[in-house]
Specification:
8 helices; mainly alpha; 2 strands
Length: 165
């Protein structure tokens, strides 16, 4: 798995779109006969047709069409990858496992998640609990700040623990 971490993955600072990086990694995995990476890239690319754009036909009827490759944004692809990550976490939970190579590979393409310590520090510095009836009401403010870079369940646990202490 260490080779994969060095070779595959994506970050916004790479100067390449996520779409192009996935296609590039797919090609590389096929040449190296790396079936695990190849299959993961195929799954992601197989979800591309689910990315659609609303259009209005000449008749006035509203419908959708599949996005062209140049219309696919990094956010579109990050949402697809997040769905696969969520699905894999559910499967692992049922198997009573914590991680898999597939999950680790998918995570290489997502922006780095905020750590519990970072979230807790931000809450301490920016949230005045006296303004809320219950600490859980601060959840909206925290999630608005972090967006998809924080797991909602993790934030909930942090808030619960901060109330207890």
């Amino acid at each position: 798995m260490s080779d994969i971490k060095n070779e595959y993955g994506w970050g916004a600072s790479m100067g390449i779109s996520l779409y192009d990086k996935i296609r590039q990694d797919m090609k590389s995995a096929m040449m190296k006969k790396d079936t695990a990476v190849r299959d993961a890239m195929r799954l992601i690319m197989g979800a591309f047709p689910s990315l659609t754009v609303a259009i209005t036909l000449d008749s006035g009827k509203k419908t959708t069409r599949v996005k062209k490759p140049e219309e696919i944004t990094d956010d579109d692809l990050l949402n697809i990858i997040r769905k696969f990550v969520k699905s894999e976490k559910t499967v692992l939970e049922l198997k009573k496992e914590t991680s898999s190579d597939y999950l680790e590979l998918l995570n290489l393409y997502l922006p780095k998640q905020a750590t519990s310590e970072e979230i807790e520090r931000w809450i301490q510095d920016n949230v005045d609990f006296s303004k809320f009836n219950s600490p859980m009401q601060a959840m909206g403010k925290v999630m608005k700040h972090y967006g998809k870079l924080a797991d909602g369940n993790e934030v909930k646990e942090i808030l619960k623990n901060m109330v207890r202490s």
